[in-house]
Design brief:
There is one protein chain. The protein is mostly helical. It contains 6 helices and 4 strands. A two-stranded antiparallel ribbon has the order 1-2. The chain has a two-stranded parallel ribbon with strand order 3-4. It is globular.
Length: about 110
């Protein structure tokens, strides 16, 4: 398990900001096997170049922990409602509870 300095897991969204690539990698690496299986079942792939799980459309897969972090940060920063936050997040991120599945996103690209 990778360790990173100055852990941000217990800070408010305004203090911890968006996750760094190292934090995303760590959280994806720590995801339970069933989460990785869910990503695979939805057509997501492990990218050996970036070491990230991504959708066919290139969105980064998020575990529940990472989803909560990013949603809280985006909402805090923009004060937008749920649909606007979801739309913003779907440009870069994917989580099974967001409105669009990865295969549908890929077919729209």
């Amino acid at each position: 398990m990778r360790q990173f300095k100055n852990s941000t897991r217990n800070k408010s969204p305004s203090k911890k900001g968006m996750p760094t690539i190292q934090e995303v990698l760590q959280i994806q690496e720590d995801a339970p096997a069933w989460v990785e299986q869910l990503w695979q079942d939805q057509g997501c792939l492990y990218d050996p170049v970036t070491s990230l799980w991504v959708t066919p459309a290139g969105q980064t897969c998020r575990s529940d922990e990472l989803a909560l972090w990013v949603i809280e940060f985006v909402h805090f920063a923009t004060h937008c409602g749920a649909n606007a936050v979801s739309d913003m997040l779907l440009e870069t991120w994917w989580h099974p509870k967001l409105l669009t599945c990865p295969n549908a996103s890929a077919s729209n690209v």
